[in-house]
Amino acid sequence: MFSLKKLFGxxxxxxxxxxxxxxEARVSIGLxxxxxxxxxxxxxxxxxxxxxxxxxxxxxxxYQMNEELSRTFVTPLEREDIEALSFALYRIPKSVEKIVERxxxxxxxxxHAAFQRQAxxxxxxxxxxxxxxxxxxxxxxxxxxxxxxxxxQYAEGEADKVMLGLLRxxxxxxxxAKEIVILQELYELVERAVDRCRNxxxxxVQIVLKHA
Length: 212
Prior knowledge:
This protein is mainly alpha-helical. Helices cover 83% and strands 0% of the residues. The protein is globular and about 60 Å long. The relative contact order is 0.17. InterPro entries: PhoU-like_sf (IPR038078), Put_Phosphate_transp_reg (IPR018445), UPF0111_domain (IPR052912).
């Protein structure tokens, strides 16, 4: 059994901030799913405000983490690990906001079905990351972390396959050159967001292995 709590002692501020970061990452992806649903339902211009707020909240969490690190002379874990995980979590809402910004200016009829499977895999990845981060507070086994990481790796691998399939359809379909360029970038942005989740999961695995 590995327990960060033993290392952190009674001060749980780092747990709080890491979990808040993981939660905000999942929330931002939930907002993306809802945004796509609104588009499909015919909502003309769904608001982007929630995405901006989510990214700003994640940024504040990261700032607080950096502030706490600067105040703490001796950290319970290597500073590089805490900083790396905090930054990896911050990048997820940032990626999601970029996706929605690009979708919001997409010309013509948006291909909702093409993004449905990608959104599902992104949700799976975010939920796995949140689970892994929350395991750190209560103490965990390497087996639980591996199981969650397996789900995360599966989502990342499937996202690669889905993107390749979408690109194949795009290249062999009736789309004009401009549409191909725009959609290719959007597909890649969503796949990159899944990669951001995977990167956060890898850092959690490394932390647990160091202290197992």
